[in-house]
Design a protein that fits this description.
single chain, about 210 residues, 6 helices, about 90% helix
Length: about 210
């Protein structure tokens, strides 16, 4: 019975890593679309998020089967409950990437060039946080997970800088207001992606230590 349960846990871990890899790929494509103003890349990112819906359902179903059909000990319960939380964060990362891609297409059709440098930097930093958080979970590396939490301050500072600059643009040039607002929304989505990376890192810590950080 325990061998079967351990095999199921390994399958759960593999499914989590697959979904995490999908989230990483979407972030990379969205970041590239912001950098190149490539509408096809943005459309590709929107399409990629669809596969994450099924991944989320599969992982949730496996977690529920493990909880209902087996008798998990405390450590196992931490792993399963953390997976249920993390899968929600991964799905939301995918949704927010799709929203960014949609806004990117809108900006491109309005004749806007590439996203400002700070937004592209923010996208790269958020992507790094997600990748490191996922690696920390896969490797059960508490120190690496704690480092991800610390990186959030940099993304928050970038968001404040971008927001302040764009608000000044709106005040100085009302004709650019719609464009600036769309960029603020993109930056806000990126800030949320970084927040989800922090959540994943915190659940990675919980898996190992049972400590709820935050």
């Amino acid at each position: 019975m325990r061998k079967t349960f351990d095999a199921e846990l390994q399958e759960l871990n593999a499914e989590m890593i697959d979904m995490a890899a999908a989230a990483e790929d979407i972030i990379d494509v969205v970041t590239a679309s912001l950098d190149s103003a490539d509408e096809e890349q943005a459309k590709s990112a929107m399409e990629m998020t669809k596969s994450m819906d099924q991944m989320e359902r599969d992982i949730e179903n496996r977690c529920l089967r493990l909880l209902l059909q087996q008798q998990p000990v405390a450590r196992d319960l931490r792993t399963i409950s953390a997976a249920l939380k993390m899968v929600t964060d991964l799905q939301r990362i995918g949704d927010q990437c799709a929203n960014i891609a949609e806004l990117s297409i809108l900006l491109q059709r309005q004749g806007s060039a590439r996203a400002p440098k700070d937004i592209r930097t923010m996208s790269q930093r958020a992507g790094v946080m997600v990748k490191r958080a996922i690696a920390a979970y896969a490797n059960r590396d508490v120190d690496a997970a704690r480092d991800v939490v610390k990186l959030d301050d940099e993304v928050d500072r970038l968001f404040q800088t971008i927001k302040n600059e764009l608000i000044e643009l709106i005040v100085d040039n009302r004709e650019q207001a719609d464009h600036a607002i769309d960029l603020i929304i993109i930056a806000k989505y990126l800030e949320r992606i970084a927040d989800h990376a922090v959540n994943i890192a915190q659940w990675a810590i919980y898996c190992v230590t049972g400590e709820l950080v935050g």
